[in-house]
């Protein structure tokens, strides 16, 4: 019982610290929608880098990553770490820099608002927002599932799953409602540094406790010889490439990530952050995946929820340190969910409430609706999380590939003046419909010659967007010049 009290005290202590940071940020936040959503576009290099890093790397990384490496081998570091880090780093520049220029010029808060204005289309704005919110709800649910399972495993059932999921939801609601983007960015920076340090200390601690890296790798090879050779795991190259590409492109359209394209203080801040991004991704994925792969040679087995990291920590580290690492994992989950809730509320208010319900809403009214939306969104996701048996990898990969269907049509719109409203509606709608049918129904196959439907859907979206645009004519009110922006001359 004393161990449970210590573990819970460490986790709750960390959550209270994060809430304290949010309260400080609340005192500095203006009561305007732009400050609540984007911190008045004043985020600097370190905070932008770490808020993006912490926002993206969540329960999918901390628990799903080791679970995947335990089952399929350490080569997934190449897919989830190196390839996705580089792919998103490139997209950060290609999409993010262009969006930053346009957002600064016209004051956009969401990608739906930007596209709706460019094509003079409430339907497109609502479609992009609806798709984004659909997949966002699933990914918020992933964090709550991860938190509930983590605390249940750490305390060996003393804290039930529902209580852990509810605890993290309550804290997230508290500081997101209070602090907005400024508080989220500050807590993300704290959480990003915290989880990065802890996962490397965990790797070193287990390596020393279990005989060193060489012995651990040798033991892994004895149990799973295929883990020592590239391509020797459970999955085909087509599957792995499909996942890497779809996840890398999907990240760029995650609302909480895409919205960060608008918040940088300057061009230099944006470019510094994107240059450092791949390094940070590798620094987190390498230890997380190695721990899962090493566990195969140690005789450690996943817990009842299918997670390998908590049993590994309980076996080779002290109780207090295992609790710290789980607190770090919960930091990862909170730093994803807080940003998702904030972005979800902005999509709901800016792209659905304002254009379809109350076009004349004041900034203060929109700010209030946004904060109420955070509460509603979090509670809906919590209810969903209490009724799911899906693994973290299944939940996360499905959402990533859903967002990937949006990326290529948006890229075409950003760079090709010939893109039309009809082309965008068709490209976004048809690719999303194909992916939904392939994911949730039997008649549409989920794979094509080993290639995942998520990747095929991306190709469909690109072809349809370009093809329909070529055979349709832009209406006079479509603002083709809106995406032609002057180059930045910011010094910093």
From TrEMBL:
Compartment list: Cell membrane
Keywords: Cell membrane, Ion transport, Membrane, Sodium, Sodium transport, Symport, Transmembrane, Transmembrane helix, Transport
Top-level taxon: Archaea
Pfam families assigned: SSF
GO MF, one annotated term: symporter activity
Transmembrane annotation, as ranges: 6-26, 38-64, 76-95, 123-141, 161-181, 193-214, 234-254, 274-295, 315-334, 368-386, 392-416, 423-441, 453-472
GO terms classed as biological process: sodium ion transport
Membrane topology classification: Multi-pass membrane protein
CDD domains (alphabetical): SLC5sbd
Chief localization: membrane
Record GO cellular component, one term: plasma membrane
Family according to the record: Belongs to the sodium:solute symporter (SSF) (TC 2.A.21) family.
Protein name as annotated: Na+/solute symporter
Source organism (scientific name): Halorhabdus utahensis (strain DSM 12940 / JCM 11049 / AX-2)
């Amino acid at each position: 019982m004393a161990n449970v009290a210590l573990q819970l005290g460490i986790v709750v202590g960390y959550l209270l610290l994060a809430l304290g940071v949010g309260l400080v940020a609340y005192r500095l936040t203006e009561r305007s929608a732009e400050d609540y959503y984007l911190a008045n576009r004043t985020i600097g290099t370190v905070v932008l880098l770490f808020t993006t890093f912490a926002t993206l790397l969540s329960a999918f990384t901390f628990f799903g990553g080791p679970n995947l490496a335990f089952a399929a081998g350490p080569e997934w570091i190449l897919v989830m770490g190196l390839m996705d880090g580089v792919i998103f780093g490139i997209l950060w520049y290609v999409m993010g820099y262009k969006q930053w220029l346009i957002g600064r010029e016209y004051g956009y808060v969401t990608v739906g608002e930007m596209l709706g204005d460019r094509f003079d289309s409430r339907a497109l704005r609502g479609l992009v927002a609806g798709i984004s919110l659909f997949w966002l709800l699933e990914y918020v649910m992933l964090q709550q599932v991860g938190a509930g399972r983590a605390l249940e495993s750490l305390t060996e059932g003393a804290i039930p799953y529902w209580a852990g999921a509810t605890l993290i939801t309550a804290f997230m609601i508290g500081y997101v409602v209070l602090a907005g983007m400024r508080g989220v960015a500050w807590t993300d920076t704290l959480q990003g540094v915290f989880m990065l340090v802890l996962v490397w200390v965990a790797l070193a601690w287990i390596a020393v406790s279990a005989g060193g890296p060489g012995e651990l790798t040798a033991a892994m090879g004895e149990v799973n010889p295929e883990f020592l050779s590239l391509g020797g795991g459970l999955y085909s190259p087509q599957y792995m490439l499909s996942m890497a590409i779809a996840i890398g492109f999907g990240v760029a359209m995650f609302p909480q990530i895409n919205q960060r394209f608008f918040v940088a203080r300057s061009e230099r801040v944006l470019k510094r952050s994107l240059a450092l991004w791949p390094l940070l991704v590798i620094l987190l994925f390498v230890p997380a995946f190695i721990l899962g792969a090493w566990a195969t040679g140690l005789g450690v087995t996943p817990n009842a929820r299918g997670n390998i990291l908590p049993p590994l920590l309980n076996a080779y580290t002290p109780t207090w340190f295992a609790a710290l690492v789980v607190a770090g994992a919960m930091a990862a989950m909170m730093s994803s969910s807080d940003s998702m809730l904030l972005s979800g509320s902005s999509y709901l208010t800016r792209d659905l409430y304002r254009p379809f319900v109350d076009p004349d809403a004041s900034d203060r009214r929109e700010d209030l609706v946004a904060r109420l939306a955070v509460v509603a969104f979090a509670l809906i996701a919590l209810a969903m999380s209490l009724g799911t048996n899906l693994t973290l990898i299944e939940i996360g990969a499905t959402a990533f590939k859903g967002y990937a269907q949006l990326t290529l049509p948006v890229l075409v719109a950003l760079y090709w003046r010939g893109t039309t409203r009809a082309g965008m509606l068709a490209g976004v709608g048809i690719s999303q419909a194909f992916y939904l049918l392939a994911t949730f129904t039997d008649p549409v196959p989920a794979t094509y010659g080993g290639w995942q439907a998520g990747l095929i859907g991306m190709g469909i979206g690109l072809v349809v967007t370009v093809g329909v645009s070529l055979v349709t004519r832009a209406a006079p009110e479509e603002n083709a010049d809106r995406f032609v922006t002057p180059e930045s001359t910011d010094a910093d």
